[in-house]
Design a protein that fits this description.
Order of helices and strands: HHHEEEEEHEHEEEEHEEEHEHEHEEEH
Distance between the termini: 48 Å
CATH topology of the largest domain: Aminopeptidase
CATH superfamily of the largest domain: Zn peptidases
Mean pLDDT: 94
Strand order of the largest sheet: 1-2-6-3-7-16
Number of helices: 10
């Protein structure tokens, strides 16, 4: 026998079950089964072309940024009528090479396949919400959709385009996966990848030990100093993930190489660590060695801001919700948009897990919940109700 609360939850469960059962995922299946590995330009472009066709049917116009070796980036634009503009942001690529994970399946609660939550599923949420607005109003204006092709490999090409375009928008919604309780993301760590190459001098380890300059020893000293820059209380980590060097046990090492990553939660920490890295590279512990630094920041930190807080507050007020938020350690293209000052919220896709593995899945119920909320947000935005 159920309590009143239990009966209410049971009715809600049945209601949600009926909603998800009525949702047709055949369109999503179509794009999930296109291999969109970042290096598969043909597959990524095919995915983009399908989205372009779907959005063109809503009166939006695709603008293509052609690339030779990776998929083309797409900015799909609506009419411009008001003072404020909203950018939707997604990526077309996935992490799975051909013949590794290419099939779509579903059961009562979940859909499975490459990109169902990261992030073809998120792009599909945005599409369905735009379709709902178009059915209601017969038009869409001041909402544009940027789809990039290389997010999964660090957005090394698209981040410059994204940053340039983002400056022209008042708000941005990024359609990476939601949190388990429908959280949206208000902060993400910044990330940088760096390399230190150390030149020493080879010498016979038995006969001429003192004539050598040990690059491996210098690398060990620098490794210790780099890792010491970690400050867990501030959310800053420095990880030396790969070390290589030397010739053999009987030779003083003439070369060594360090690969390391920096993650940080605040621009002040970024500046502190970058200055310290420069000092570590400049100073030699082992006489006769010399180090050079390469690499850099890939995507800068996404930090909460007052403008972002107003964005959340407007959504809560207009849509009569209490939007849960969270900080994440991983990066996305939300970092790029946020770092140029555009108020940004991430995590507007469906909730899912197993992303970047062959167990990737997304919740059917969360698709409908996200589509409903995003549709309301679009409606209020087009009505000019955001402050």
């Amino acid at each position: 026998m159920f309590s009143a609360y239990g009966r209410k939850r049971q009715r809600q469960k049945v209601k949600n079950s009926k909603v998800t059962e009525s949702m047709d995922f055949s369109e999503l299946k179509r794009i999930i089964e296109i291999n969109s590995w970042t290096k598969n330009k043909a597959g990524v472009d095919r995915n983009g072309e399908i989205f372009s066709q779907w959005l063109s049917a809503l009166g939006m116009e695709p603008e293509r940024y052609h690339r030779e070796e990776i998929g083309d980036h797409l900015l799909i634009k609506s009419a411009s009528k008001a003072e404020k503009k909203l950018l939707l942001l997604g990526h077309l690529d996935t992490v799975f090479p051909p013949d590794t994970f290419e099939h779509f399946s579903e059961d009562e609660e979940w859909i499975y396949g490459p990109g169902v939550c990261d992030m073809k599923g998120g792009n599909y949420v945005a599409l369905q919400a735009l379709r709902a607005i178009y059915r209601r109003r017969g038009e869409i204006h001041d909402i544009d959709f940027l789809l990039v092709s290389d997010e999964e490999t660090g957005s090394d090409d698209s981040k410059y385009l994204t940053a340039e375009l983002a400056r022209g928008y008042d708000y941005c919604m990024v359609f990476e996966a939601a949190g388990p309780h429908d959280e949206v993301v208000t902060a993400r760590k910044g990330v940088g990848t760096f390399f230190i190459d150390i030149e020493g001098k080879a010498a016979h380890a038995g006969n001429h030990y003192s004539d050598g300059a040990d690059a491996n020893l210098e690398a060990a000293q620098k490794l210790i100093e780099l890792v010491a820059l970690t400050d867990l209380k501030r959310g800053t980590t420095v990880n030396v993930g790969k070390v290589s060097g030397g010739i053999g046990a009987n030779t003083i090492s003439p070369k060594s190489h360090l690969t390391f990553e920096l993650r940080y939660t605040a621009s002040e920490e970024r500046d502190r660590v970058l200055a310290a890295i420069d000092a570590i590279v400049a100073h030699s512990h082992v006489p006769g060695t010399h180090a050079t630094l390469s690499g850099g920041i890939q995507r800068d930190v996404m930090q909460p801001s007052q403008a972002q807080e107003r964005f959340v507050s407007d959504i809560n007020r207009l849509c009569h919700v209490s939007l849960p938020t969270e900080h994440r350690g991983g990066v996305s293209d939300a970092n790029v948009v946020s770092s140029v000052g555009t108020p940004t919220l991430d995590g507007w896709g469906p909730f899912g897990d197993g992303d970047h593995t062959i167990y990737e899945r997304a919740s059917k119920e969360s698709f409908q919940k996200r589509i409903d909320l995003v549709t309301k947000i679009f409606e209020h935005f087009i009505n000019g109700e955001f402050t």
